[in-house]
C-alpha cells in the first residue's frame, strides 16, 4: 500500500435530481413570487435600519421586515422557536405546497430534511445572555438549548411534515445551503430517500455577530443610500451587507417526478466541494480551491466547461472575494457564461445564501431570464466577465453553475440543467 492519491475521482453515472418545489423568505419579500420579482428587476439593496442593531457602527442590514409566521405556526409554538427555525418552516411549507406532494400518501420514512445553518439560534443566544446578566439565572428560558441548537431548524421542519428519514444540518459557513442541496441529491442518488426537503436558513442580525463582521472590515460602509450599498463586482465595492433569510427546495429523482406528472423547475445535475486549506477567512488568492469545486461539479454532471451558459456567482461585494472568484470563473469557464450576483438585492444571508441562489438559478433556467446584478454601475476593469447588469437578460440557458464559498476555505458548487 502507499503512493499518491488519485488527482481526480472516478467517473460516476450522471444523476438528475428534479426540483419540484421551491420556497423563499428574503428581505426582498416573503414568498418566491415577491422575492423573485425584486431580484428579477434588480431593484436595489433591500437594506433598512435595524432596531436590534441600534448603537453599533453597522446598524443596517437586509432584514425580513414583513415576516409574520402566525398563519402557519401557532403563537404558543412560535415563541418557542428561534427566528432561524421560523424562517425555515415558512419557506419549507411554501416549497412542499409548491411540489404538489401529498404528505398523507408519501412514505415518511423515506423523506429526508437537510438544511444549511451556520450560526444557529443567534437571536435566542443574544436575548437569553442579556436575561442572564440583567435578571439572573432563574429567568433564563428552559428552552434555551433547543432554541439555539443549529440542528433544530431541520428538526422542526421534519416535525412539521412528519418526515422520518435522515434529518441533519450542514455547517460549511457561507457555503452551507449549497452543501445541503448537494448532500440532499446524494441521498436520492444512493436510494436512501425518495424525497428530500433541503435548503438553508439564517437569522444572524444580532449586535455581537454583526460587530464581529464589522471588526473584520468585511461589511459595506455606505449609509447615504442604503438601496445602493451592496455592489457586487463594482469597482467601488467595499463589503457585504448582512442579511437574514431562508430558501427551501424539494428534490426528487427525475424519473419519480416525471411519473407523477410534477412540474420540474430545473435539475440539479452536478455537485462539487473542496477546501482551500489556506486561511481562516481570506480566500486562496488564485482561486485554486474554488476551481476544484467547479471542476468537480462539471465532472459529476458530465458537462464540459464550454457548455456552461450562466453562473450565479457567490459575489459578496467584498474586494478580495469578488476578484478571486472572477479570475477563477474566467480561467475555468472562459468568456461564455452570463454572470450575475443576487446579493446586490438581498444582501448576504450566510448559510442561507447558497439556497436562495439555488432557487434563483432554477427560476432563471425555467423562465429563460438572468436577473441583473443590482448596483453594478462600473465593472471593475480587472474582472473580465460577461456580467449581467443594469438590466436582466433573456437567455435560454441550458446549463448553469451556482458558486458558494465560506470561511475556512469551504467551497461548494451546484450545477443545474434545464428541465
Question: What is the straight-line distance between the termini?
Answer: 45 Å
* Computed Rg: 20 Å
Q: On the 0-100 scale, what is the average pLDDT?
A: 94
How would you classify the quaternary structure?
A: single chain
Please summarize what this structure is.
This protein has 13 helices and 16 strands. It is α/β, with parallel strands linked by helices. Strand 15 and strand 16 form a beta hairpin.
Give a topology summary.
Blueprint: E1 17-26, E2 29-30, H1 32-41, E3 48-49, E4 60-61, H2 75-78, H3 83-99, E5 111-116, H4 122-135, H5 144-148, H6 152-161, E6 167-170, H7 176-190, E7 195-202, H8 207-215, E8 245-253, H9 254-259, E9 266-275, H10 288-301, E10 310-312, H11 319-333, E11 338-340, H12 343-346, H13 353-367, E12 369-370, E13 386-387, E14 393-394, E15 399-406, E16 410-417
Parallel strand pairs: 5-6, 5-7, 10-11, 10-15, 11-13
Antiparallel strand pairs: 1-2, 1-8, 1-9, 3-4, 7-8, 9-16, 12-14, 15-16
Can you walk through the features of this model?
This protein is an alpha/beta fold and 419 residues long. It has 13 helices and 16 strands. The strands form three sheets. Strands 1, 2, 5, 6, 7, 8, 9, 10, 11, 13, 15 and 16 form a twelve-stranded mixed sheet that branches. Strand 15 (399-406) and strand 16 (410-417) form a beta hairpin. The chain is globular.
